[in-house]
Amino acid sequence: MSIFEDTLDHYTAHNNLSENNIYYKTLFAVLTLIINLFANSPIVPFLIFIICTIIIIGKAKIPAKFYATFMAVPFGFALISVIFMAFFFGVGDHIWNLGIFGWGITADGLNRGVLVFFKVMGGVSALAVLILTTPMNRVFGIFHDLHVPSILTDLAILMYRYIFLFLDVTATMYNSQKTRLGYHSYMSWMHCLASLAGMVFIRTWEQGEISYKALASRGYNGRLNMIRQGDNIKDISAIEWICLIVFEVLVAYGIYITGTINVVPVLI
After folding, report:
1. Which of 9, 46, 133, 256 is the most buried (most CB within 10 A)?
2. Interatomic CA distance for residues 29 and 52, integer angstroms
């Protein structure tokens, strides 16, 4: 199995939604993200998270394990936010005392924390519908249509390219060290890791120089020319527009009717 068969780049190019209109997916992700920010109750963001997860795993066929790994980082940060907000950002009487320095959890703080948690998970899952199902070269094409300065787009392309160069070099050197009995003890682990970090930096620097010379030999003048695929916002069908509008209206209406419904009265 190739080291790139379990990476974001692999799954963006090998899923059931990779060929769908990128403008449609972008509109879905951005509109859902923006509407999600106006929620004052965690109910709708939670439903957004569930729906987006079903789209990603059930429709796009992204492996659940990879999706869980992708969401682990925002989940961790959101969970930390819940803890801090529950302890330090609420007002009112404590519903649970820690017994140290008068610290405790308030209902208001816990409600704020839970709301932030589900807003983060809902927003990230909405963006994941776009990120996990669309090759990055097509996403960079959207930047051009939005008139993002070309220097920023080119830098993003080069940075994205070198992420995989970094992974390739790292995997090759790590396997080489393992075959030479590296990482068998704590001191060996520290020594191998230091060597790996130093050599990866040198190799990527050298590869960067080689890549620049290769670009210069092909007439690179400070701007990368991308091959654009034929996606157009006009290609979105009427049914897709109706589905998108109905979904976003339902989400907005859900936020309106749920208002400020909190979960703490249910939890305690």
Report:
1. 133
2. 9
Whether the CB-CB separation of 132 and 70 falls below 8 Å is answered with yes
Give first-to-last CA distance, the chain, whole Å: 49
User: Residue written as tokens 């405790």?
Assistant: 104
Rounded to the nearest 10 degrees, the angle between the axes of helix 136-145 and helix 22-37 is 80
Residues of the chain with pLDDT under 50: 1-3
Could you identify the residue written with the tokens 């109750």?
A: 41
DSSP element (H, E) containing 143: helix 136-145
DSSP 3-state of 106 = strand
Instruction: Express each pLDDT in 161-203 by its tens digit.
Output: 777 777 777 888 888 888 888 787 888 888 888 888 888 888 8
Torsion of CA 175, 176, 181, 185, to 10 degrees: -60
Element (H, E) at 104: strand 104-106
SS3 95: strand
The sign of the CA dihedral 232, 233, 234, 235 is: positive
In this prediction the pTM is: 0.76
